[in-house]
Amino acid sequence: MDLPMKTRGVQITRHGGPEVLEWKELSLDPPRVGELLVRHTAVGLNFIDIYHRNGLYPLPLPLVPGVEAAGVVEAAGEGVHDLRVGDRIAYALPPGAYAEKRLLPANRAVRIPDGVSDEVAAAVMLKGLTAQFLARRTYVIQPGDTIVVHAAAGGVGLILCQWAKFLGATVIGTVSTADKASLARANGCDYPVISGEGDFVSVVREVTFGRGVPVVYDSVGYETFAGSLESLQPYGLMVLYGQSSGAVPPIDPNILQRGSLYLTRPTLVTYMAERADLERGAAELFDLVGQGAIEVAINQRFALSDVRSAHEALEARKTTGSTILVP
Fold this sequence. Notes:
27% strand; 29% helix; Rossmann fold; alpha/beta; globular; Quinone Oxidoreductase, Chain A, domain 1
């Protein structure tokens, strides 16, 4: 019988602030049927990691957080035929990325194409696949559309702005600082609005001559939800895909009758549940990255063992673009 191997990683045994993230030795069994043993080369940092840590999106404990990474296949269990030892792979979900090595279901991994680095792949998988389903499936952005992207200088926001520009849309975005406004503008946001200094609803009315936009992509939640609904044109779609400012309180569905509006709360888990959708989404994403139509800004790097500092910076909105944790 093969004995468990040792690795190092970050584990939580209770929910709370960054202090619950513990750097420790972990045990791994050999890969089972349909599994890969992956040695991580780069790990992505995402707001959902904070939700898992603080219990807003509770998962069974103890937990190794982290939902996005790139690495190298070191071993494969029985039944794995399309990936081999030595392949560079990346994935988004399931949790377990905050470790030097992990076991991963093979059907969640995709090969990293030549010309895309491990760091870029780790930075773009979850955020890029999220942008892909938002722009191509939840609402299909059309040339000439004017859209709203909240947190336009964030990880998903920067990619979504670039994708929308590639598709021929005009982008109104919200940001928290002047520096982030400049960053968003450089990545395809035509009208960055600094929170506290401008009213994005007024900008929407001005840019669309009072009609409103067909879609709002809102990852901020509590602070922006009401204004997002107000920004929509008749039959418009409110896409709530995050809540960095806090959860949206329960709502009366009758608020949607103004304009016969639609509201959705999409997740990557649903949109990428089928292997074919994952492969198609990743192929489209990596193609645009390879073309240069989407540039991934890795603006912060932390040692994986210093993940507490990374979480503190992300929660304080001191980060822009993508952040990489280095094993």
